[in-house]
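Morning F.,

Quick status update on the modeling queue. The single chain you submitted on Monday has been processed. Sequence for confirmation:
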Amino acid sequence: MLLAVALPACSGGRGSPSSPSPAQLQVGGAYTIVKSIAENTCDGNLTPGTVSGTVTHASAAQAFTMNDSFVTFSGTVQSNGAFTIPPTPTPPGHFGVPLTSVFEGGRFTTNGFEVQVRLDVNGANGQPPFPDCRVSQVWRGTKQGSPNVIPG
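Structure tokens below.
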């Protein structure tokens, strides 16, 4: 004799999430970047400015690029939002000579990012040559559109 037994349905089977999936790091998008001068050892005035920038970042990835409307910089970001960009030689700009951009203390937040940027200017290559100098800036980026996701 065959007995049929009815079993109650389980909700914890395969394919059913038992807990929500963790948030994934997301910092890509458009930013309004305000650049303010913290130090200037170069002759002449530099006017702080606001530029439109972009961050390209695949969800959960460590690699990202940041473009400040002039140069694209490559870096890495951690799940807590801290980021690094290695010293980057950049083309002549305001000073008419090559310089190196050095990034320190970068951090993405849900609303944007902040980073200190030092521009090491190679004045010896100027026409006419001038003393090497440095400009330190603070960049504050405000995220446009959806907020960043910083999982921790």
